[in-house]
Amino acid sequence: MKINRRNFFKVMGATAVSGSSLAAxxxxxxxxxxxxPPDPYGCLVDLTRCVGCRKCEEACSQVNGLPAPExxxxxxxxxxxxxxxDDKAFTVVNRYFTGKLDNFDKPLPTYAKVQCMHxxxxxxxxxxxxxxxxxxxxxxxxxxVSKCIGCRYCMVACPFEIPAYEYHDPITPRVMKCTFCxxxxxxxxxxxxxxxxxxxxxxxxxxxxxxxxxAHKRLDENPGKYINHVYGEKEAGGTSWxxxxxxxxxxxxxxxxxxxxxxxxxxxxxxSLFSYLWSPIVLFSTLxxxxxxxxxxxxxxxxxxxxxxxxxxxxxxxx
Amino acid sequence: MSHxxxxxxxxxxxxxxxxxVAFMIAGGIAILARFTGGIGxxxxxxxxxxxxxxxxxxxxxxxxxxxxxxxxxxxxxxxGKHFYEPVTRPALLTALLGYxxxxxxxLVDIGRSWAIWKPMFNWNTNSVLFEVAMCVMxxxxxxxxxxxxxxxxxxxxxxxxxxxxxIFNALVNLLLKMADAILDKIMWIFxxxxxxxxxMHQSSLGSLMLIAPxxxxxxxxxxxxxxxxxxSAFAVGYPMVVxxxxxxxxSFNIDSEMEVLSPLTKITTFLLGIYMFLKIGDMLxxxxxxxxxxxxxxxxxxxxxxxxxxxxxxxxxxxxxxxRSRKALFTAATMIVGGVALNRINVFIVAYKxxxxxxxxxPAPGEILVTLGLIATLMFIYRVIVxxxxxxxxxxxxxx
Lengths: 319, 400
Ligand code: SF4
Ligand code: SF4
Description:
Chain B: It is found in: Cell membrane. The complex is a heterodimer. Chain A is of the alpha+beta class.
C-alpha cells in the first residue's frame, strides 16, 4: 500500500474541514424529540361494553376490501382459539375468561378487539428502512406499498405484534395492518368502519385529547367498575387507540409496556453517533494519521505486498 | 518471510467439491420454490416471527464472520504490521465473498427482492436498518475495489479473452493497468474507508434489536448491544482467519502459516478479553445473572455461548503452548468463531420471543437448504478463485 503524500493531505484536509464544522453544532442536537402529531384522532374501546358480536370485523373487511371474516356469524366456537390480526383481517375480537364470575358463579367473558394501536411515536415508522410507514396528522399510521422492500423490520419492531405479511405472494407481498380507515377519517365527518357499526358503542371515535377526557370521566364516575388506568395513554409513549377495562389489561393480551416511546433508545444512539457523520469522520482521520505514521516509519515495507512479475513466474513454475 | 501470493496449481474437481455442488443444486431448488410459492412456501416465518434463519445466519452471522477482512487490513495496512500481510488476501477474499452472500441472502429473504435498490432513494435516517444497509452496500463496493489489484496482478500483460472477444485484449489490458495504477495511489482511502464502514455497521447490527425491548430476552437485551457486536467482531476477526487458513492449508496441503497465526491470536486474547469483560460486566451490572440457571433453552443457549464460545477458548489462548500447536489453536479458534456465530443466532433468533403470539420457530427444511446452498456456493467460488488468482501463499520452499 502506497500513500502518496500530496494526495493524503488533500483528502485529510477535506475530512478535517468537515470535522471542524461539527464544533459549531448546537449541543442539544442529539436530544430525542417526539414526532407525534399535536392533535390526532383516536378511538376509545370500552371492554366492559363489548359483547363479542364481531360486527367490527365484518365492517372492517368490507371497508378495506378484505375477505369476509372467518365464520362471520359465529360468536361461540370461533373464540376457542386465540386469533391475531393477519394479512386477511386487520382486526379480530377474542374472548377471555379472567376469573370474573356472574351472579350465578358462572365465569364471565371479556371480549377484546385488537388492531394496530396507531402509536404516537410508532416503532414501525422509526424502523422502516425506506420510510414506507408514516404517522399522519390524523393519527393514522399509513403504509406506502410503493416504497416497501419487504424487509419486515416493522414487524420485528412493533411492540403490539400487529403488522402481518403476505407470505404466500412470491413477488409483490404487502405488509398488512389496520389503516385507521384513513380514506374516511381524513374527510370531514368520516368515522372508521368498526366504530360506525358497533351496536354497543364500545368503540368511540374522536380527537385523542377528548377521548382521554371521556375515559377518565368514565373511570371517575364509576368507582370500582374499571381498573383505574387508561391503556394507551402512556404505553410505548402513547397510542391513538385507547382501552378501558374492568379486568387487568395483561389478561386480555394488552401487554405491559414501558412509557418510553419504543424508538427513543435506538434513535438516540443512532443520532448521537451518526449525526453529520461525525464519528465516521473522526475515525477516518484517526486511522489516516495512524496509517501515515506507520508508513513513514517503515517505508521499505509499504511496497512489499506486490511481487514482481519475475518472482511470480518463478513461483508459478515451481508449484 | 515471503510475501508472495500465487494461484494454486491443484486439481479442481475433488469429492468435496462434488458435495458442494450437490448442496448448491438443492439450495437452488429451494430458492426457485421461494420465488414461485412465496416465502411462506419454504419458510416457517410468521407474523410474530418475521426474521428467522436467513436473517440470523445468512445476514447477521455472515457479516460477523467476514470481520477477518477489516481486522487484518487494519493490522497490516493501517497499523503497518506488514508481517501479517500473508493473511490479508485470503481474509479479503472471505470478506468479499461473505458480503456478496449477505446480499444474496437478503435478496431471498426480503419480500420484494426487485425493490432492494429503493433505500438508496428513500432515506429513513431514524432506521438502524437503513444505516446498516447503506454501509453494507458501500462496503461491498470497497471490497471489490480492494480486490482489483489482485486480478490485475494475475492478468496484467497477459489478457487473453476467448475467441472473438480477443480483439478487446489490448483494451482490457489497458483498463486493467490504468485501474491498477490509479488504485495504487489511492488504495489507502479504500482501506481506511473499509475499516470505518465495518465499525459502523458491525455495531449497528447490534442496535437493530434495541427497538424491540419486550421481545428480546433480558440476558441479551442491553443498551450496549452495539458495543458488544463491535467488540465481538474485533474479537472474531483473527480466529476466523486461523479457522479458514487452517482448513484451506490442510485441504490444499500447503504451508500452514503457523508463524503468522500464532502471534495473531496473541492479539485475540486481548480483543476477546475486552468482549468477555464487557459481556460479563453488563450481566453483573444489570443483574441479569438471576436468569442464568432458569434451565430454559434460551438461558442454556446463553451459557453455551459464553462458556464454550468465549471463556474457555480465551483461557486456552492464554497458553503459549496452545498458540504454538496447530491443532489446539484451531480448536480454540473454532470455538471462538462458533461462539460469535451462536451469539448472532441467539440475539436474532433464540432470544426473540414475541410475548403476545403463540408458537415458536424452528427453521423449515427449505430455509435450511437455502442457507446451506448459499454457504456451499460461497466455498465453491472461493475454491475457484484461489485456484486461478494469487490469493494464497505459494508453497514455502519455492518462494523463499
Ligand atoms: S401498533 Fe405496531 S403497527 Fe401499529 S403503529 Fe404501533 S408500532 Fe406501528
Ligand atoms: S417491510 Fe416494508 S414497511 Fe415494513 S419495515 Fe420493511 S420496507 Fe418498511
